Each structure stands twice: as C-alpha cells, then as structure tokens.
Amino acid sequence: MDIRHILNNCILCPRKCGVDRTSGHTGACHMTDTVRVSRAALHMWEEPCISGENGSGAVFFSGCALGCCFCQNKAISGGKAGKDISISRLCNIFFELQDKGANNINLVTPDHYIPQIISAIDMARSRNFKLPFVYNCSGYETAEMIQLLDGYIDVYLPDFKFMSPDLSAKYSNAPDYPEHAKASISEMVRQCGGDQTRFDDDGIMQRGVIVRHLQLPDHLDDSKSIITYLYNTYKDSIYISIMNQYTPMPGIENRFPELGRTITPSEYDELVDYAIDIGVENGFIQEGETAKESFIPAFDNEGV
C-alpha cells in the first residue's frame, strides 16, 4: 500500500501541520520524508513478553511530534541524531535483526513515518518475513492514521501519558493529548486486543495491546485516573504496564521544579496497589532501580 502522498500535506499526527515534507521541509516532528534511524539493535529493557531472553529488535526513529519537556530520548526526538536511510535499507534492517535472534521488530517513535514503514513491511513480507511488528508510540496519534496500520502491526505498545489536558498542555504543549490517546488506543484494541491476544510457547506476545503509563513525580492522582480509565474501559482486553523509570534530565528542575526528582518507592507502591485494588490483573510493574540513565540506550547509529 503506497500512501506516501500523505506527506505532501502532512497530517500524520494530531498537530496536522500540513507541511510538504517531500520538498525537504520539516514538520512538527522535525523530519522531512527521509527516514532517519538512530539505532537498530537487540533491546532487553521492554516488558518480558516483548524482550524475552533474546531481545526485541528495536528500531529507534529520529524525530517526534509530541515533544515532552521530560523526554529521555531528546538526543533523537528533536531529529538531530540519526542516519538517513532508504526504505529498502529499513527493510534490510528488519532481516538483520531477525538474523540476530530478535523476538520481534520494535518500531520506536514511528508515527511520522507511517507511509514509509508500511512500504518497508510490504517489501519485507514479499520476501517472506515472519516476525511480528510492535508499534511503540507516544499515544499522540489519530485513530485515522492508526487505521492505516490495520493488518501491518501485530502488537501495539502505546503510552498513555496524561489524563489531564492541563498537564498535557503544560508538559507537551498538547492539551488534546488525552482525547487522541483514548481514540487511538480504542482503534489499536479493535485491531489487536481482546480475544485476538496471543503468545507463543516462550511467552512472547504475538498479538495484543500493552498500554504503558510512566508515573511522574507529584502527579499520582492523574496516574490513578489513567489506570481507572483503562481498566474500566478495557478490563482484560489489554495489558497495563506501570512504569517507575522516570529520569529527570539535566535542567528540567529549572523549568518545572516538581519534575526534578525521581518518583519515590511509596508513590509507585501506592499506584500499583491502587491498580490491584480496582481489579487489574493483566499488568506489568517494574522493580528495583530503573530510574537510571543507563536505561537510555546510546543513539550512535548502531545497526543502521
């Protein structure tokens, strides 16, 4: 399916900036229509059913249309780091990761490259590629663009960052984040969730939806609202991953003092206990010291 014409007047993300990315102009995502990748390697730090023992074949795309003030991948989200590649090269990267033993192909921050990714997947499948594709995204998508991925993506791994429009405006300049997260996740669940969920014999997810929530310091009530919404809406049709790995990047405390620290064990325990109390069973939690910069990979063009 060739839908690259969308890039002529780009509306891939909710910001709908309308830039002609095919002419070398950059959109809200900071990218032209040329695919830029900063790392393609086995990644061990995803949920157990994604990484497993062999690792997830993570392809980190440069650029991002959301632009959270606390982004841990700022080296690539602004589009400066990375290497420009062709669609055929992206396809070959899929096969190279498969040869390394990857459980899946993990497309990280892929929204602004949907047309190119679809072309690369078509190319790979024409060569009998077999691994499942994981769509690892911010939650700031439109349901219409997620519909284009129907039949291409096997596992959706979106964030649900904010329930409060005020918080999403403050930290991501996107007061419409909650409404788009709700709509896009609904479409993801329609495609891959519920009774469609399945795992292989090694416990690796082959189809399904895992919604992640990164808990922020001092915003426990908003986190509880997200967990409540997800469970009340989807029950066991999805998995919920509650993450404690928030890492304050240098200088964030100058703009937002409340974000200048990691979350405390008691904050995290309260959120996890809350999830259990309301009935969440299909879930993942993090244990130990995860809020370290060592969990942020080197964006050094490995594998690109």
UniProtKB/TrEMBL annotation:
Domain of life the protein comes from: Bacteria
Record-linked SUPFAM superfamilies: Radical SAM enzymes
PANTHER family: FORMATE LYASE ACTIVATING ENZYME, PUTATIVE (AFU_ORTHOLOGUE AFUA_2G15630)-RELATED
Keyword Iron-sulfur in record: yes
Organism, scientific name: Coprococcus aceti
Domain Radical SAM core: 60-170
Designated name of the protein: 4Fe-4S cluster-binding domain-containing protein
Gene3D superfamilies found in the cross-reference section: Aldolase class I
Keywords from the named record: Iron, Iron-sulfur, Metal-binding, S-adenosyl-L-methionine
